Amino acid sequence: MERKITIYTIAKEAEVSPATVSRVLNNSANVSTEKRQKIEHLIRKYNFSPSALARGLTEPRRKVIGLIAADVRNPFYAELYVSCEIAAAKKDYSIMLINTFGKVEVEKQAFTKLMEQRVDGIIHLGGVADDEVTDHSYVKLLEKLPSSVPYVTTGKFDGIDCYQVQIDEAKALDLLMKHLSQNGKHRVALLGGRNNVVSTRIKYERFLEKGEAMGFSMDPDYLENWGYYTIPKGEETMDALFDKLKKKRKPLPEAVIGINDSTAIGACESITKHGLRIPEDISVVGYDNIYMTQIVEPNLTTVDYNFVSFGQKLVDTVIDSLDGKEPVRKRLVHPTLVVRRSSDSERSGS
Amino acid sequence: MERKITIYTIAKEAEVSPATVSRVLNNSANVSTEKRQKIEHLIRKYNFSPSALARGLTEPRRKVIGLIAADVRNPFYAELYVSCEIAAAKKDYSIMLINTFGKVEVEKQAFTKLMEQRVDGIIHLGGVADDEVTDHSYVKLLEKLPSSVPYVTTGKFDGIDCYQVQIDEAKALDLLMKHLSQNGKHRVALLGGRNNVVSTRIKYERFLEKGEAMGFSMDPDYLENWGYYTIPKGEETMDALFDKLKKKRKPLPEAVIGINDSTAIGACESITKHGLRIPEDISVVGYDNIYMTQIVEPNLTTVDYNFVSFGQKLVDTVIDSLDGKEPVRKRLVHPTLVVRRSSDSERSGS
DNA sequence: TTGAAAGCGCTAACAT
DNA sequence: ATGTTAGCGCTTTCAA
After folding, report:
1. A187 and A284 housed in the same domain
2. Is the CB of residue B297 less than 8 Å away from at least one CB of chain A?
3. pTM of the prediction?
4. How far apart are CA A234 and CA B329, in angstroms?
């Protein structure tokens, strides 16, 4: 076991003071070329790396941002996490990631852990699974955060004093509705999700609000607002819709909007299973533009949130706040429409 | 901005010494109930959280393991990362994750960063994309690591003094070959990958070595060892195989082994495109049991590595080494066969 | 340009 | 059971 090597080791051997070693380490002051070289040589020789812990003890910034996500095995979070990491790296910050797996208990611990690690700020990815977390528990957690640590969330709730960067869900739905409308669809179904998830609720409300103007037949039987956000549940939901319409002797929808891509993909399976073609018989569209949308057959029309700029906004909000720049409390991420085969039979390839 | 609060703040107000506060914080010694309660009350009152930095400066263990992965947007790494996190949490360790995106430069920085953060050990996920990293650069990096920091990798190379936890690739291939053999397949194709990736080379070597005994017709024309590890490349590769066999007037394979699941899924697309049925005309199998194998049509037969125990082994190796338990240098992860529709027409559902 | 010394927040050995 | 004190490894005045 090699002896621990510190700036003192270097200083002693270079016959300078530790302060001088620190100076070359940080380029914080002029050091004579002679001494500098001697020191740099020793640093290499011993493969010395300064302790971020000791440094963090004195310096006001750790250059680390905490990131709380439900589960990076979910592609949505993986994308967002990575784009945050990249955005942070640009400004020489690191990301410290904690997965909560949707468990409130773990989530609370995550905050504690991050605070103990003295992260400079916290990004909280509410996202798809924010239904597990009640507003109440959010409030409790946030109250405990010192105001010096900027907190930014993708969660959608009012009355909480924090930074928010959120998807413009309403606009996202508008894009999809407009697209379907332009393709002459009238009987449009909206599938999946639960109403205690804010993003879901927004979509349903918007659908009811704007659907008529888009020329949709606003029959509530074409809303199947139950289940989760997964592929199998999407399939189940679509199955249920088929059953219901059959019983009520109502015509099939011309288009189906999944509450997210997974739901839409599940719906596709159900439709195919029922012997129908996509998009010839029924168009299908989703949300999120996850990787799989480009893989499934046919490729899925969806709404993209531009994860790169999403992550950038999250990180910038934290750093700007740290730098005293007072970022706006609430920023929106603007979605764009990605048209693929599942809603456009003209499209070549799959 | 609230004043910074430390154990001294608490100590002073509780009229005790900082040491006593430390004692209740760590339960490291007996403290009278009276003082303990007073202290605990103040901790709650101020929402005090002890600095992991200061603590790390004195304590020998930081309880943090560094994890270097190529890209957690790749489901393989996401699964492995999460299982490591879960395994670590059981022993009260955290994971500090860094993505390298296959860039050697970033990878080097990752080591430096982790060392500066004084992680207790480092896990390096070579995995699917370890072709980007030459053995040479590994050696260089590893030489710089102090021997006190256990390093464990999933990479497959000899002559480097480190811990290795790796997939038993040969056994994995054996499982697939046996399965196909038992289903009466003779003309079996092996598709995708590059030979400078060790895991790929192992598979090809094993195939050549054991194929005959399995009753396969060992025609080299049924090996298409080129391309990457992605779905589109898998499709291209299969397309190329079709072309070649047509030109040479050779019969189609009865089964196709993809070098990984993505390649296999791409091959499926090619096969379907050529108007053939899976598995009736051609069986397809892959490796890794990524999530998508359960989604594609038909579901893909594959080999599973049990990410839970994989991660557990990685983490245990680090911690055991830290605890002076001298874990074995090389451990194998045992794969299991997952039979699905793509190689078994008897199977119900998709 | 350089060094001495204090301090960051905590733990642990030693004393009481 | 509790307090005193000396580090841990670094940065940063302040002097020289």
Report:
1. yes
2. yes
3. 0.87
4. 46
